[in-house]
Amino acid sequence: MSDILIFDSFLIVFFLLLYFGGKKYLWMRRSLIVSCLVVSFVYLIWRTFFTLPHDCLIDIVLGIILLISEWSGFSQAIVFYILFWKKYKRPEQNVNDMDIIPTVDIFIATYDEDLTILKRSAVAAMNMDYPDKEKVNVYLCDDGSRPNVKELGDELGIKVITRVKHDHAKAGNLNHALGVTNGDLVVTMDSDMVPRKDFLMKVVGHFKDEKMGFIQTPQTFYNKDPYQFNLFVTNEFGSDQDFFMRTLEEQKDAFNSVMYVGSNAIFRRTALESIGGFTTGVITEDMATGMLLQAKGWKTGFVNKNLASGLAPETFQDLIKQRDRWGRGNIQVAKKWNPLFLKGLTSIQKLLYIDGISYWFFGIRKMVFLIAPLWYMLFGFSSLNATFSQLLLIWVPMFIATQLAFKLVGQGRQNVMLSNLYETATAPHMAYAILLELIGKKQNKFAVTRKGINTDKSKFNYRFGWPLVLITFLSVVSLIKVVYLMTQSADLNSVYINVFWIGYNLITLVLAIFLCIERPRLRKAERFESHKKGKLLLVSSKGESVELEASIIDWNESGARIHFISKKNLLLGNYQGKLMVDDQHLNVRVVWTASEVLAVKFFNVNSKQFAYLI
Fold first, then answer.
1. pLDDT tens sequence across 395-435
2. Do 455 and 545 contact (CB within 8 A), yes or no?
3. How many CA atoms lie within 13 A of 544 on its CB side?
4. What pTM was estimated for this model as a whole?
5. In what order do the strands lie in the sheet with 265-268?
6. DSSP 3-state assignment of 107?
7. In what order do the strands lie in the sheet with 194-195?
8. Directed axis angle between helix 416-438 and helix 462-487, to 10°?
9. How far is CA 485 from the centre of its chain?
């Protein structure tokens, strides 16, 4: 045992040296990747030929299922590290360098979203910079045919596009808009996505290349997703989509394999027309559209700048429903346009799309890892035939190398433990959804993710939380049973292995259960930190006036929290007046005061002021 510990210690020190050196030197980064794949391959060869159980049929079947799950994870790791072998960043292009400035149609797709959310996006889109703003048209593509959306369009002075027949959901909505517009370029925006002023300026220049079919920019989020919010880890965790949106997509750009994600993208109209418009017949029309464009020979690109932000799902339930739709949609795309047989795709494009589709089997794989040790501890069925010392020798180096390599490549946005939490929390439902889709029980109806949810109470989401509670309960029972097994003639090697395995699973299971406790979301609009300076001119209900130097702490389009210094007691009466910041004079009403801090609500905000705030 001591020799094993010495050997493991040597390998771990070696991996750590490569990890810290890999932050600076490319050759050390690549050496860690190669080391990770080598020790993982050695581990799996050992697993395949020396650890499969053979005592009974159930053991053999369970052992094969577990082994297939591990090989599946390894195959995805190979593709993952191929992507990150060399860092890639697309060179910037200036729209002003284009010979002819193209016309741009901005489609904001909406169905039943709150008008306050839609108005933010519309106003921001109207105020984007462009060399010739006469060439930019903003359209509200309302597939709900709502009168109040028409009124909003009239208020803002932008066109509203509706249709009589509401087939093919979002893709049908966008295709209808394509048929009644004629811009050279088409921007697709979800109704909650708020573009920055420089969105067009940073992206349109890339269409100087006549073969450029579309440019995707990341979807970022200005609210906290359920992982960050429900677990009180706003500053510790990034959004669970950051790694894909900001890191994976950029690396896929090196292989012309950028995935269209439904929003924050610009298309060349002729490219869309070459494939008959946005793809229909699947619930992830965005992924299919991008893939078919690439198969048609069009170039695609990714601009890794935060140019538009929206709302992440605000409850764990909505997050799971969104992932359910994405997972099912990927299976539908694979059935309808299998990337392996899709003419026009390069070999690497086929590999990356197959890898992206196979990712959605993570729920099934994760459930195998969660349940396998329970089969042994509760029922005596073994899926692994190995000694504890063998695992120390072969599994531990692989585990450490995997952790370090993934963390290094993840660039601080992702690590194995965080990925494990994401997958554990959603595994029961995703495994069920993918299995249903595989056997033909489709979910064809496109379900819009709810946005702008307000709640004032905490609640446990039993529908999605009970499988996690059940697995956790069985895990605890299994650990209690250890005391009994250690007094019997049970194989203690297997006991030790499964105790460690269950303990590792319990860490993420407990966090996943807490994730199912939905915390209250009291504000209708998110607040944003600010360092802007200004002045407050206030008059009380008793006629007392006061002028204050103001420093905005945080604000949104509804109000602000402001730091001030004053010798006067502002608690003597109700105050209202103006907040003067930049060149704006905003009407405000004080809603509460504390020591050197007050909160104001904006009122009578005109269109220019609203645009400034957004």
1. 999 999 999 999 898 876 677 777 888 999 999 999 999 99
2. no
3. 11
4. 0.89
5. 159-161, 136-142, 104-110, 185-190, 265-268, 212-216, 299-302
6. strand
7. 194-195, 308-310, 220-221
8. 110
9. 43
